[in-house]
């Protein structure tokens, strides 16, 4: 491990019950950067994130944080260092935004300690950072999808960790709310140096918003590096089984994937034959 990498996997194999999904995976997450994990359905990308976050215990190998196995750390100690937003978190019934964000302070409170001024300040900072201050007294179940996702991120921020893992944070959101959430994560990374690791389905959003891409497929890492290194026509064909063209995004100057599909490919063949 170097100062550039705090979280890493070494010879990691992981899965569910008797099924191994990831085989002998080794990687290092760049500190202070945004990393996006991409891959097809059932490729193992969420399995990788869940194992990095200690939700799953590896079948072999180890996940290390600052050189120590996360699976041997006390839960409270890990929660003081690593924040996690799982996929489709359960919404507590009848809870307000402020109360939910306040739950992020639990790792910093001892068995008999009381709510402190520092806890108040941490919640205020998290609400401000996510633009949810005006929602503090609202019930969570009255919010829109994008607002609710920002509140969940605020709860993770209230833990005041410098490492944040998110499992598909844009799932079930319309495109405007997807951009809203991703812009927020970029703001957090730029302002606080938060290391962000997230699973994303959308390749173009991953390439636009991430500094580092990890492409997962066939039980292992197919490619990793900067978006322009990873997002290639060959990788999309290999990992997703899809023919495409890679062009330059005119807005972000990052690679963008244009799918071809059978219908358009057939049309092109017919047009060539006719000419």
Q: Can you put this structure into words, describing what you see?
A:
With 275 residues, the chain is of the alpha/beta class. The protein is 35% helix and 27% strand. It contains 10 helices and 12 strands. The chain has helices spanning 45-52, 75-79, 97-102, 117-129, 145-158, 175-192, 203-209, 227-230, 233-240, 261-274, and strands spanning 5-16, 19-30, 34-39, 60-65, 68-69, 82-85, 163-167, 195-199, 212-217, 220-225, 244-248, 255-259. It has a 6-stranded mixed β-sheet, sandwiched between helices. Strands 2-1-4-5 form a 4-stranded antiparallel β-sheet, with helices on one face. Helix 4 (117-129) packs antiparallel against helix 5 and helix 5 (145-158) packs parallel to helix 6. The longest helix is centred in the C-terminal third of the chain and has 18 residues, at 175-192. It is globular and about 75 Å long. The N and C termini lie far apart (59 Å).
Number of helical segments with 4 or more residues: 10
Helix and strand composition category:
alpha/beta
Share of residues in strands: 25-35%
Taking all Cα atoms into account, the compactness measure Rg is: 20 Å
What is the strand tally?
12
Shape: globular
Q: Strand arrangement, largest sheet?
A: 6-7-8-3-9-10
Question: Alpha-carbon distance between the termini?
Answer: 59 Å
What are the segments in which pLDDT stays under 50 over at least 5 consecutive residues?
Answer: none
Run of helices and strands: EEEHEEHEHHHEHEHEEHHEEH
The biggest sheet amounts to: 6 strands, mixed
Helical fraction equals 25-40%
Mean pLDDT across residues? 89
